[in-house]
Amino acid sequence: MSDVATTLARQLETAWGLAWYHLETLTDEECLWRPADRGLHLIAMPNGEWAAGWPDHEGYDLGPPSIGWTTWHIGFWWSMALDHGFGGGTLTKDEVRWPGSAGGVRQWIRGLHDRWRAEVAGLAADDLASNERTRWPFRGRPFADVVAWVNVELTKNAAEIGYARFLFARRAQ
Which fold has domain 3-44+63-169? Predict the structure, then answer.
């Protein structure tokens, strides 16, 4: 494994440890709780599936996302990165559904982590330096940039889930 690949793999494991700490005991109630009167959340569809709202801007007045939405977001960007980096590159955000429960979230996100880790581990240094696989979330950059972005995005989302869990635990009863 190259120095870059080793560093990226270590970063992923650090980010994963933080994320799993917050996901491991996550409950359905926490997922569906809304920390404010406005913010990104999940939408229960008539067919029993769960979709996610999508912002038309990223301003602070949008409000904080729910934990459920944030877990959907992890599944969304990781599914997209896998499909566009190692698959057919046809997946869209509208095809990504929230699994419906905290247990489903754990299974889904762990599966994405394990698949991502295996796919990236199979890349040579030349693959990481090439932009051939870089089709989402950006183009024309080395694939190592996508791998690093996944690590940063996972860390950010883990921190958001952790912060929201602190708020949930101390909410006014």
Answer: Four Helix Bundle (Hemerythrin (Met), subunit A) (1.20.120)
